Amino acid sequence: MAKGKYNFTSYDLEYKRKLEKKRGSKIPNEEFYKYILKLRKWMKEYIKVVKKWAEEKPYEAEQLSQLVKSWEERDKNKKLRQKLGMVEDKNNSSLEMINDYKEIYQINYLRNWALFLSTIICIFTIKTIYKNPVV
Q1: Is the pTM of the predicted complex or chain greater than 0.90?
Q2: Are residues 18 and 66 in the same domain?
Q3: Among residues 34, 58, 54, 56, which one has the least CA distance to residue 46?
Q4: Which of 18, 14, 17, 16 minimizes the C-alpha distance to 33?
Q5: Which residues constitute the domain of residue 71?
């Protein structure tokens, strides 16, 4: 192993920073390099096993791939719907809208009570200050 530069990727360096932060001390480059090589070796072995499984059972691999894609798409669509304020089902749209309005009402209701109580406290404070002036 050469003592010169190590060819760390930006991901390696970012991971090294996280490990150092977690560990609380610096990690020597040589030690980290050995660690990265061990991880890469493990990943290569894992990839070989997965590829072998995919070759032996292509139908299951395809089903798994479609399942993962559908999950990713559902999550993406759910986030987009929330951003756009769209409802999930047309049948449940009235219930969703009612729940949204109930939540908005509760927030405004609490805000109004807080404003009312703070106004009363301010009036009481001003009244006591002007009733008993400090000389």
Answers
A1: no
A2: yes
A3: 54
A4: 16
A5: 8-86
Do residues 45 and 51 lie in contact, with contact meaning Cβ atoms separated by under 8 Å? no
Q: What is the pLDDT of residues 108-133, one digit of tens each?
A: 888 888 889 999 999 998 888 888 76
Count CA atoms within 13 Å of residue 39 on its CB side.
9
The pair of three-digit structure tokens given for residue 108, joined into one six-digit string: 């405004």
At 97 the pLDDT is 64
Fill in the DSSP letter of residue 88. S
Percent helix, strand and coil across the chain, each to the nearest 5: 80, 0, 20
Record the tokens describing residue 80, joined without a space.
């987009």
pLDDT, tens only, 48-65: 998 888 888 888 888 888
Instruction: Please tell me whether residues 71 and 95 are part of one structural domain.
Output: no
